[in-house]
Design goal:
2 domains, globular, 4-stranded mixed beta sheet, binds shikimate-3-phosphate, UDP-n-acetylglucosamine1-carboxyvinyl-transferase, Chain, alpha/beta
């Protein structure tokens, strides 16, 4: 168990771990490429390591040399080893992207995961992959699932029924194997790291405006060539530091080298609308992705309405936005957040329960979350994280500025995405202590 207590100002220059989405993709494309891929800044969180272990079990070489990860690829169709099972732990991204990888390999294996992942819907990925030729035993849509790849995939044109980068990516990865062109059409933009990185590895990929959205098209029978990837800092992890600095008086933090791809920065846009003093410095491009140092100074905040169109660009940041909203003057209304129900936990329910446990006036609808904020957040809650790393970190942040300490029930789950969260926060001045359970 961990507890966070009202803290003085947070100060300093900090680094956050590598972006989780980009880290998964770097390992995967490295394994599907010919030759060697080197990755610096890889997130060594449990989710990403599970993907690395799965790729190694399928025959790719994945090793760490000093601070660099080296992947010896097997070529697009060359993951020939036949493991009985692949365990993705807590990671929806790992499991879903790897379904797209398996689809085109001559492999039959069982996908498994932890209790949280075993509750999450896989049908949204299996539906298009089945159309392409993936074999799925049974008609279940949760793990464990037995999947049979095919060396005869067919290309498809697939309109995304939900705005999901995981589904988009799985279809594009499978499309690498199919002859001809595979297209995914999205009506709302979702994170585009797969597209950027496929191009970086030499795939042929086009993006065009269509009547019903944006079509992303990948050419099949592809050859990928190993490359170097520098993974920027994760804006979803930086969000906890930014939030903590905003709500603890007199704070100023610089978070160096953070990914600021516009498909990921909805949280920062929203905070600025709330009155937050946030600046990007040293804006640059690294490895095909926009990166900046984020400078944040604690600020008086006001409640805002967050439109549903913004949800895909900040989908993982709603729990911590709800925490910030508790300290903002007035009501913050978040629209179009139904997808939160199928994350590592039902995040709408766990965020609401956490806020209430901390004495915050909040309400949720099917697709909305409303937080009444103001000064004097009581805190004092014992938070059930439901195996959800972002719930754990969000409520530890709340405890840094509330009147009473906040305790979370599961500290270990934080290692999913931000293994040194507690050390980084403490170094900036946050009061976070381990409690004997
Ligand atoms: C991710 C996409 C998002 C996000 C997840 C990472 C990715 O999920 O919540 O943490 O790397 O593609 P969805 O695609 O299901 O929205």
């Amino acid at each position: 168990m961990l507890t966070s207590t009202r803290s003085g100002s947070l100060q300093g220059h900090v680094l956050v771990p590598g972006d989780k989405s980009i880290s998964h993709r770097a390992l995967i494309l490295g394994a599907l490429a010919t030759g060697t891929t080197t990755i610096t800044g890889l997130l060594e969180g449990e989710d990403v390591l599970a993907t690395g272990t799965a790729l190694a079990a399928l025959g790719a070489g994945v090793e760490k040399k000093g601070p660099t990860w080296v992947v010896h690829g097997r070529g697009v169709s060359g993951l020939a080893a036949k493991p009985d099972t692949l365990d993705f732990g807590n990671s929806g991204t790992g499991a879903r992207l790897m379904m797209g990888v398996i689809a085109g390999q001559d492999v039959c294996t069982v996908f498994t995961g932890d209790e949280s992942l075993s509750r999450r819907p896989m049908g949204r990925v299996l539906a298009p992959l089945k159309l392409m030729g993936l074999g799925v035993e049974g008609d279940g849509d949760t793990l464990p699932l037995t999947l049979r790849g095919s060396t005869d995939l067919v290309p498809i044109v697939y309109e995304l029924p939900v705005p999901s980068a995981q589904v988009k990516s799985a279809v594009l990865l499978a499309g690498l194997h199919a002859p001809g062109k595979t297209s995914v059409i999205e009506s709302a933009p979702t994170r585009d790291h797969t597209e950027r990185m496929l191009r970086h590895f030499g795939a042929e990929l086009t993006v065009s405006r269509e009547r019903n959205g944006t079509a992303i098209t990948v050419s099949g029978d592809a050859e990928l060539v190993g490359n170097n990837v520098a993974v920027p800092g994760d804006p979803s992890s930086a969000a906890f530091l930014v939030a903590a600095a905003l709500i603890t008086e007199g704070s100023q933090l610089t978070i160096k080298g953070v990914l600021v791809n516009p498909t990921r920065t909805g949280f920062y846009v929203t905070l600025k609308e709330m009155g937050a003093d946030i600046r990007y410095e040293n804006e640059r491009e690294e490895g095909g992705e926009p990166v900046a140092d984020i400078v944040v100074t604690s600020s008086p905040l006001k409640g805002v309405s967050v439109p549903s169109e913004r949800a895909p660009s900040m989908i993982d940041e709603y729990p911590v936005l709800a925490v910030v909203a508790a300290f903002a003057n007035g009501v913050t209304r978040m629209e179009g957040v139904g997808e939160l129900r199928v994350k590592e936990s039902d995040r709408l329910a766990s965020t609401l329960a956490g806020l209430k446990a901390c004495g915050v006036d909040a309400a949720a609808g099917e697709d909305t979350l409303k937080v009444h904020g103001g000064k004097g957040v009581p805190g004092g809650g014992h938070i059930e994280t439901h195996m959800d790393h972002r719930i754990a970190m969000a409520f530890l942040v709340l405890g840094l500025a509330s009147e009473n300490p906040v305790t979370i029930d599961n500290a270990a789950i934080i290692a999913t995405s931000f293994p040194d969260f507690v050390e980084v926060m403490r170094a900036a001045g946050a009061q976070i202590q381990q409690l004997e359970s």
